[in-house]
């Protein structure tokens, strides 16, 4: 009797695979964490106020203008996911990030800026979708 897996399970997969470990490392990076949160708001899965306390400056107002149209909403029942998220550090305490959001065959670009406050917390300072700026 094998005591390391649930009864009736016959596959050999185990927790802690390389892919699972890569996902866990990725989630500890602030730009991936914010990409997932912004995607949840802009796809209509979460309300805009979910980002209160995680935004500064115009970023919250940008989300308020973008979110009602749910520009990243699921296409053809395929939930959007962050396929890749890159980062650029123009200076200390600043990350300019870009993400590829995929939903089936559709791919959308999202860019955002993170700034680290005196309390060492990262906050979103700006958001753009598809290369178009949000009108102010």
**Order of H and E elements:** HHHEEEE
Largest sheet: 4 strands, antiparallel
* SSE-based structural type: alpha+beta
- Give the terminus-to-terminus CA distance: 65 Å
Percent of residues in β-strands: 25-35%
Report the C-alpha radius of gyration, rounded: 18 Å
For the secondary structure, the number of strands is 4
Global morphology: globular
List segments where confidence is low: pLDDT < 50 over at least 5 consecutive residues.
Answer: none
Instruction: State the helicity in percent bands.
Output: 10-25%
**Spatial strand sequence of the major β-sheet:** 1-2-3-4
Number of helices: 3
Return the average pLDDT rounded to an integer. 84
How would you describe this protein?
The protein is built from three helices and four strands; from the N terminus they run αααββββ. Strands 1-2-3-4 form a four-stranded antiparallel β-sheet. The mean pLDDT is about 85. The longest helix has 13 residues, at about 30-40. With about 140 residues, the chain is α+β, with helices and mostly antiparallel strands. A hairpin with a 2-residue loop joins β1 (about 80-90) and β2 (about 95-105). The protein has helices at about 20-25, 30-40, 60-65, and strands spanning about 80-90, 95-105, 105-115, 120-130. The relative contact order is 0.18.
């Amino acid at each position: 009797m094998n005591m390391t897996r649930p009864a009736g399970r016959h596959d050999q997969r185990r927790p802690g695979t390389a892919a699972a470990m890569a996902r866990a490392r990725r989630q500890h990076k602030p730009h991936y964490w914010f990409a997932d949160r912004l995607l949840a708001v802009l796809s209509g899965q979460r309300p805009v106020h979910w980002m209160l306390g995680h935004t500064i400056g115009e970023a919250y107002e940008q989300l308020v203008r973008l979110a009602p149209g749910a520009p990243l909403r699921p296409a053809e029942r395929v939930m959007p996911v962050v396929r890749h998220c890159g980062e650029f550090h123009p200076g200390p305490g600043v990350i300019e990030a870009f993400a590829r959001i995929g939903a089936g065959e559709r791919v959308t670009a999202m860019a955002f800026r993170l700034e680290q406050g005196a309390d060492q917390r990262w906050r979103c300072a700006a958001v753009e979708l598809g290369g178009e700026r949000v009108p102010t």
